[in-house]
Write the structure tokens for this entry.
Amino acid sequence: MTQLPAPSMREAAETLGQSLPPLLAEAELLASTIMLGEHGRRRAGQGDEFWQYRPAHAGDATRMIDWRRSARSDATFVREREWQAAQSVTLWVDGARAMAFRSDRAGATKGERARLLALAVAVLLLRGGERVGISGSDTPPRSGKAQLLALADALSRSDMTAEYGAADADGIASHGRAVLLSDFLGHIEGVDEALARASDRGARGVLMQILDPAEEDFPFDGRTIFESMGGTISHETLRAGDLRARYLERLAERKDRLQSLARAVGWHFHCHHTGDAALPALLWLYRALEGGR
Amino acid sequence: MWMLGPVGFTAPLLLLGLSALPLLWFLLRAVPPAPIRRRFPGVALLLGLRDEEAETDRTPWWLLLLRMAALAAAIIAFAGPVLHPEKRDPGKGPLLIVFDGGWADARDWPRRIDRAALLLEEAARAGRTVAVIRLTDPPSDIDFQTADAWAGRLGALSPQPWVPQETEAWVAKLPEGGFDTFWLSDGLDHAGRSELAAALGKRGALTIFASTRPVLALHPASFADGAVQLAASRQPASDPVEVEVIARGPDPAGIDRELARATLSFGLGAGRAEAALALPPELRNRINRFEIAGLRSAGAVSLTDDSLKRRKIALTGGREDREGLRLLSPTHYIRQAVQPVADLVEGGVSDVLLANPDVIILADVAKLTQTEEDELLDWLDDGGMLLRFAGPGLAASDIARSAEDPLLPVRLREGGRSVGGAMSWGEPKTLAPFPETSPFHGLAVPSDVTVSSQVLAQPDPDLAQRTIAALADGTPLVTRKAVGQGQVVLFHVTANAEWSTLPLSGLFVQMLERLAVSTRPAAAGATDLAGQTWVAEVLLDAFGQKTDADAKAGVDGAALAKAIAAGPDAGLRPGLYAGADRRVALNAVGPDTTLSPAAWPAGTVIEGLEGAREQALGGSLLSAALAMLLVDILAAMALSGRMPRLARSAASAMLVALCLGLPEPARAQDGADATAIRATEAVVLAHVLTGDATLDRIAEAGLTGLGERLWERTSVEPDPPVGVDVETDELAFYPFLYWPVSASQPLPSAKAYAKLNTYLRTGGMILFDTRDADVTLGGGTSPEGAALQRIAAGLDIPPLEPLPKDHVLTRTFYLLQTFPGRYDGATVWVEAAPPDAEQVEGMPFRNLNDGVTPVVIGGNDWAGAWAVDEMGVAMFPVGRGFAGERQRELANRFGINLIMHVLTGNYKSDQVHVPALLERLGQ
């Protein structure tokens, strides 16, 4: 970790302390509802868990002999461990301003839900021994509990001024996994391009679209000026109710497009609403990551 | 005032503002509703979408119309519209105000006075002199005075309980010179009215004020065909209408009450309606007046006199050994004489005494059993009248021979005597004139009444005093003696024609009448009244109310007879007049009174008493404008999409309701079913609504708290409690009712009592809580205790006892020995164990009602201890400190025990025997 000057480090620590604990605690709470173990490969290899004792044969280094076991018999035994392979999982959470939207004042914004899901799945993955990193930041995939703090820090810092986020495929490790969390309401071409580049490198992963219930329902009527969150895009209508059908049509079209894009490269696509509970989405996310292995 | 049709405007210039409305049309049309700015990330998907209709950038025409209508209504409202403004034409010269002043005026007298007061006011303003006359007064000189002088006297003017008579006499009293006349007519034609009207018309303008309400008159009731015949007349005879007639009289306690009610139906165009009212004699004899319900007028009241009273007469004949010979039957002539005017009961002495008759007639009954005799004596002491007739049976018996029989007035000689028969000398005897002391005095003695046989009285010292009728030879024919408050009368002849011709004559009937055995039929004739002085007992005023009659002098019978024929007048007011032996009613309306309408000379102005009233329209117009603006707000919000979608449907429903002026449409249709489903889905505790909001709220909070404790601690999981109205709600759904008793609680109706008793009998439980921690039963000092006693009096509550130590209530869930609420110590009462309950081994409970006591009565204010607010925090403090919390805990435990007791019945009382049963099984 780079050495920061003391005052800025303290400031960063305090910022982290303000935003992290709730998010982290919530993510841990969410993750704790899913039980999991290490992803054992059911064969001997590198790993922490005991696999079997086998008689030592020629070629085994002496230090590999388990003397405690061997002392109980005449033969010498080697203690083998189960092979555990760790994956690199890269998370990308859209931090654009569109993600700050929420229709219900009591509910969560899309960004909050995205970060929560990202961190929760990171907790799960890290606990499973995988390496988790964040794309587009200085948090490359690492394992261990300390990485969780770094992830949380990175997630809470990701503020962008762009209206809509563009998927970033740069940080995705080759043959690794990727999780893209966004509302995907921006230009579809960016997603297309990012997916192409990621799959070129052999990475596979998950697209999770996070939408607000209002975006799904379009419960507006009357003369309305719609503005994007940054205020740079606006659209005026005299009868918002009349637009509803066409809006929904376009939204469905967008979802179809994302689905087909994902399927083309062997990725998974899922649409999650902030009005729903986070746990089913997390379960789906975790299954999707697990299933592809 | 500027008039537009029937509407006048006080500030018509403001109406010019209406011309600004078209301007408003253009202004409003030009301004579209303001847009809402919304942040919405999905805008990226909206880009490029076009609106299909570009219409709503202008305010829709109907909204415009609404706004303009609102504005127009406001403008018109401020212009001060008045419907039917009164136009007054002030006259000149003196003004004569004429009241009819009879009973027909009484129904709307205050309005007539109001109208006259208005006339006086106008006259005072115009400086006119006024005179007010009442045609029911004797004609007197008319002098015109200032209106102010009359204003004070007008209030003291009241109608008279008779109708104007000889009104033409007023013509002579009219002053010289011209004057205008306002005649407040009652709408009826009176003697000489047209002459007076013509005379008044010659002096100046004659204006008639006539009420449009019909005049109703109730004729005196008569008795025919076993029922009271009621009749009423009306004028004018127009639409069909039903009139209720109430019969009033004292109840057994002497309090004046409504005794019966009949409906008279006037047909279309019928001026007279009749109805028969069949009543039991006890009730009928109590009636002292009939009145038309809701009408205050002497014409609507009819006093009843003796002609309506019917006596109940019991008739007991001797042995009926000669069946079929009707004319020889000892009771035949009596029955003939009495039947038209009295109610007859026939049977044995013991049987008829149960009917408590006024008179018992024994026809040739000699011997009575000791019991019958005792009963008869008791009845005589209470004022009964025993009328006995002699006969062969009595003559052959040996009663009253040596000593006087208590049930015979005199001692009798053996055998009797027979005169003028085939085997005897002499002629049949005739009757001597009745002496002055006799009740029969004055009755003519027909010469053809002869007596051939009789029983003879022993010449005792008081025989002469007891004889009230004798034969020509001086032997007594009728004797009488007082017994207690009653009397015994003996006719020394038979009741049939065997011994005398007396029963065949009219004298027989008259004698019975004089003895007050029977009453006179129909109304009294002039001859009955003449020669007596009649004293008023009750006098009526024009409103049909009783007035003081004490100070009135007696009136001559002839005058009374004349008044009954012609109607009452100033000298003889309507009322009830008592003579020597009867009472006669003089009513304002006689049986033959007809109501004829007043016809006025052509050219007379006739105004209704209540013409079209002035009615200011401004207020209603303003509120209409306000309502339209409210609708406009809703409509504008809906149009601009500012109304949340959820609220929209509700708002449109409200809009419809507002437009139609209707409250929410039928939702109570399935209310009963919904209540039933809700109450039966789970255990629902209920409390009785007392009408005291605070009390009901505490009861509900208490049951909520108890319900929460039950959820926490037991498997009983009650739904939120409900309040039930014992009058209207079905009780069968609720196993338990908490009834907080307040001193001011109204008593349940008879129907509610029936429901409550069914509830108690079918296993429901009521917890009565007087909440006063004081004496609850027995002592009855606290007002709540008294209220509880009043309420419980109608309930089917078994004998109670203080909750015994071994009652199942002490161990249904918790083991308890005290039952505190907010207070501790008041005795708790439950159904008493039967006296033999202890015989069953250790189980002092009956199996009645599943062993659930139907009531628990106490005063510990349990609901107060249970009560929790919305947050689940106790509402009221209990006791002090930890001890108080302990007491609350015990109160909760009592509640849980109680509900367990209600729901499990005697299960727990069986459970306590389980060890013993197991032990027995083991052996």
